[in-house]
Amino acid sequence: MTASEKPILIAGGGIGGLAAALGLAQKGFRSILLEKASALGEIGAGIQLGPNAFHAFDHLGVGEAARNMAVYIDQLRLMDALTAQEICHVDLHEAFRERFGNPYAVVHRGDLHGVFLKACRDSALIDLRVSSEVVGYDQDGASVTAHLAGGERVTGSLLIGADGLWSNVRQQVTADGPPRVSGHTTYRSVIPTEEMPEDLRWNAATLWAGPKCHIVHYPLSGWKVFNLVVTYHNDAPEPVAGKPVSEEEVMQGFRHVHERAQNIIRHGKDWRLWVLCDRDPSERWIDGRVALLGDAAHPMLQYFAQGACQAMEDAVCLSHMLAHHDDHAVALENYRAQRFPHTARVQLLSRAIGEHIYHPAGEHARLRNAIMSAKSQEEWCNDLAWIYGSRGVNG
Ligand SMILES: Cc1cc2nc3c(=O)[nH]c(=O)nc-3n(C[C@H](O)[C@H](O)[C@H](O)COP(=O)(O)OP(=O)(O)OC[C@H]3O[C@@H](n4cnc5c(N)ncnc54)[C@H](O)[C@@H]3O)c2cc1C
User: For ligand 1, atom 20, which residue shows the shortest CA distance?
Assistant: First the structure.
């Protein structure tokens, strides 16, 4: 596609939408980003970034800024929440970094979003508009027009639906109804480092796996705070996002785990609850001049810690394809053909990880411990190469 065409419209100003705007700007394309909220921002929690995220940062032109705000952890550590014993860990030092060409890190979502937002604001090619909910679109052979909730119409050459789990754009592209409610309830808290139990202030992304529940913690923001995410498979029937809850309610799903693991939860405060949703992979990402990206295309459970990383890879791939193909239809189809199998694998494996690593009980859990504790560091790297070694675009 040529950069002289009408601007490309992007619905959604989350990590995926901002990454898409930056990727397009790197290739000389103008974009108009339409965000529903009255301000651009992210929730105050943490996010893990595999080496593949750093490959994407470099493509998107924010490599240095992203590297400056990250906490570089030493390990991915798996604990048995019933015995408080380590099952295994993945060492993230030199051998891992050399293998994948980049580090593994954790960051505050606000900091990451801020890096993307500043780069978008600094670009003359990106027009950021808030209070602009996209409710639908229509298109002819030459352009696509986004319909906004207030009645306004905005016309561009393409429309990228980066409007998240509850995407309106997806509903018009696929008409496949609401996402699947997983029945897993996640509670999030961020606590000052001095309030984290001293013997657990590890420089690691730590996961305590117990029957139908797990706890994740890691340091953030230059070690000022710890991110806590605890999840309980309680068959919750309805989707919920960000509802404040008491510590008592959080504790309900964790009374059966080791005292040391329960103690982590007691230090949390201002807990908020999400009932997690995902979807089965669906190949339908494109409708003429409209394409889906990020959670709108492939919403997944967070168990691989890859949703945002995959959204960034989508942005790299989409901008690459648009820059390399004159015909937008060929570019969008190549984007879909490369990204669909990869993201579908992450979606399905995220579910499988929940079932077989995060939440098993009894014999199933003993089998997990036996298999995972027997792996060498080299085997871990081999197992993870397909995801951490990805550059977002092949060839
Ligand atoms: C508990 C938890 C932990 C996670 N941990 C990790 C992790 O460690 N690593 C990782 O990589 N990923 C993680 N993820 C996944 C990651 O948060 C998401 O995959 C990622 O944020 C998706 O980005 P997105 O831009 O596609 O969607 P969103 O972040 O949902 O952004 C969508 C944006 O679009 C806006 N919007 C919505 N509808 C409209 C509309 N109709 N018109 C205009 N704007 C609209 C929204 O306001 C929002 O700004 C986690 C998720 C959860 C729930």
Answer: 308
pLDDT digits (tens, 9 = 90+) for 160-199: 999 999 999 999 999 999 999 999 999 999 999 999 999 9
Instruction: Please report the atom of ligand 1 found closest to the CA of residue 17.
Output: 25
Q: How far is CA 382 from CA 75, 99, 184, 307, 342, in A?
A: 16, 9, 30, 21, 17
Q: Tokens representing 85? A: 């014993």
274-289 pLDDT, tens digit per residue, is: 999 999 999 999 999 9
Ligand 1 pocket, Cβ-based, cut-off 6 angstroms: 11-17, 34-37, 47-48, 133-134, 162-165, 168, 186, 229, 274, 294-295, 302, 305-309, 311
pTM: 0.97
> What span, in angstroms and rounded, lies between the C-alpha atoms of 180 and 315?
25
Task: Count other Cβ atoms within 10 Å, centred on residue 343.
Answer: 23
| 120 residue type, one letter | C
Output the CA 135–ligand 1 centroid distance in Å. 18
Residue 217 CA to residue 58 CA, distance in Å, equals: 27
**Phi, psi (rounded to 5 degrees) for 197:** -50, 130
Alpha helix locations (H) across the chain?
15-26, 51-60, 63-69, 94-100, 109-122, 168-174, 247-251, 259-266, 307-324, 328-353, 362-373, 377-388
Distance CA 82, CA 80 (A): 6
How close is the Cα of 88 to the center of ligand 1, in Å? 30
